[in-house]
Amino acid sequence: MSEPISERTHNTPAFLFDLDGTLIDSVYQHVLAWKRALESCGVELAVWKIHRRIGMSGGLFVNALLRELGHPLDPEQTQRMQTLHGDFFAEIADQVRPLPGATDLLHTLTELEVPWAIATSGHMRSARHGLKMLGVLDGPAPIITRDLVRYAKPDPDLFLAAAEKLDHPIQNAWVIGDSIWDLLAAQRARALGIGVRSGGYGGDELREAGAFRVYDDPADILRHLDELGVRGT
Amino acid sequence: MSEPISERTHNTPAFLFDLDGTLIDSVYQHVLAWKRALESCGVELAVWKIHRRIGMSGGLFVNALLRELGHPLDPEQTQRMQTLHGDFFAEIADQVRPLPGATDLLHTLTELEVPWAIATSGHMRSARHGLKMLGVLDGPAPIITRDLVRYAKPDPDLFLAAAEKLDHPIQNAWVIGDSIWDLLAAQRARALGIGVRSGGYGGDELREAGAFRVYDDPADILRHLDELGVRGT
User: Fold this and answer.
1) pTM to 2 decimals?
2) 3-class SS string, B136-204
3) What are phi and psi of A87, to 5 degrees?
4) Which of A112, A175, B11, B112 ranks highest by number of CB atoms within 10 Å?
5) What topology is assigned to A27-95 in CATH?
6) CB-based contacts of B139: which residues, under 8 Å, 6+ apart?
7) Does A69 contact chain B (CB < 8 Å)?
8) Alpha carbons A35 and A17: distance in angstroms, whole number
9) Above 80 in pLDDT, residue A203?
10) How sure is the predictor about B21, in pLDDT bands with cuts at 50, 70 and 90?
11) Do B11-25+97-228 and B27-95 fold alike per CATH?
């Protein structure tokens, strides 16, 4: 960056959002779909441990779970689990809703000309339903999915790609996410992380992962936009 | 109690267990069943907020959720929600498993002649499946369900009734639970509360509710029984 720091820090920060658990209320359905997929492959794992890994890239997620069990890794089985997860999730995807305040928050940012984007560890195939529900599938805001980057969270690539698409410096962006993987990726990207409790994690876990601030959900962020450098609300 | 304190405190403490999220891995299924039940009655509530209320008595639970939404209370609707929850839960109850270490822990306590009981906010109708899975439905250990007491958690009645059935002083008992409602009830009963993370709550939430100690799950408790006054392991 060539502009002086004093100017840069006076620009409005960009908002880079995670999707599941941050804008749409889909985490618990994903958790139970993974539970069934793992069990179909002979892997018994408590549901809360699956919950704690949600938000990682699918491949890393399965590897992390199997490592916890001391299982050897088998790429074919990993692939099969991911396919089964997609199938089981599709069975209950109609139960998923936007989180309170999600569409309002995105509209407000757009109205105030605050740049924002969505960056999800999911593939477009599984994200499409949620994006449509939010009314942003064919909008102007950048949508970065797993298909577009080499490494998903907790690697920083998704958020870096989102900032690049916005042509906005990542050092002046918020990364908003419900999982510790979002917040770790935020740190690696040198953004600041905002945690939301709407994915079901405890505030302490989010703060321990480096959250600059923790809110309940998008509605709570919307009520506190002035804390996040957004003027005009 | 007439025995001197010095003797009483040298007796082995009794273990009073919650069921869902503490011995069986059923919390997330209950959460999604409640989500569907609430929505069927026109109540839209984010899943994580439902999760945070699980473990309360059904009636209090529904009241607390509706209060959060500012809805007026209607006893008929409350009853209907509880019935629907039971129906939706029954649809996915076959996905529920015992938590890691649960049956081992109960066996070990029995072998060491440590008194234990189960006290659940659920009715026998919904608890039966889990108790059967644990192999304790027709065993000698006391099982206290919602049907047997006037007030369920966070009131202390369930745990007080369990200690009474064991003929054991509540002041020398552990209350083991995954939700803050168990730990608040433990304090009101003047027992000490042990939190387990297997219901998906953060350790901080359990400690803030007064947990004397927090473990991952029953297997983790079994590995640390010596910390809890149990000798001979």
Assistant:
1) 0.89
2) CCCCCCCEECHHHCCCCCCCCHHHHHHHHHHCCCHHHEEEEECCHHHHHHHHHHCCEEEEEHHHCCCHH
3) -65, -45
4) A175
5) DNA polymerase; domain 1 (1.10.150)
6) none
7) no
8) 26
9) yes
10) very high
11) no
Q: Over pLDDT 90: what percentage of chain B?
A: 69
Closest Cα in chain A to B178: A48
CA dist., res. B179 & res. B21, Å (int): 8
Q: Domain extents for chain B?
A: 11-25+97-228, 27-95
* CATH 3.40.50.1000 holds for B11-25+97-228: yes
Cβ(B152)–Cβ(B182) below 8 Å: no
User: Distance from B1 to chain A by nearest Cα, in Å?
Assistant: 40
Express each pLDDT in A21-67 by its tens digit. Answer: 999 999 999 999 999 999 998 888 999 999 988 877 777 788 787 77
Return d(Cα B143, Cα B132) in angstroms, integer.
12
Query: Average pLDDT, stretch B127-144?
Result: 94
User: Would you state the structure tokens that stand for residue A232, as one six-digit string?
Assistant: 């005009």
Does the beta carbon of B99 lie under 8 angstroms from any beta carbon of chain A?
A: yes
d(CA B177, CA B181): 8
B203/A202 Cβ within 8 A: yes
- In angstroms, the CA B12 to CA B4 distance is 15
The CATH fold assigned to A5-26+96-228 is Rossmann fold (3.40.50)
pLDDT digits (tens, 9 = 90+) for A131-177: 999 999 998 999 999 889 988 888 999 999 999 999 999 999 999 99
Q: Radius of gyration of chain B from Cα atoms? A: 17
Inspect the interface and report whether the beta carbons of A32 and B29 lie closer than 8 Å: yes
Counting Cβ atoms within 10 Å, is residue A94 exposed (0-12), middle (13-18) or buried (19+)?
A: exposed
Both tokens of residue A167? 């042509």
A70-75 long-range contacts, CB within 8 A, separation 24+: A71/A43
What CA dihedral angle connects A25, A30, A31 and A34, to 10 degrees?
A: 180
pLDDT digits (tens, 9 = 90+) for B159-181: 999 999 999 999 999 999 999 99
> What per-residue confidence (pLDDT) applies to B79?
86
Classified as helix, coil or strand, B56 is strand
Amino acid at A166: L
Query: Chain B: nearest CA to A194, how far in angstroms?
Result: 17
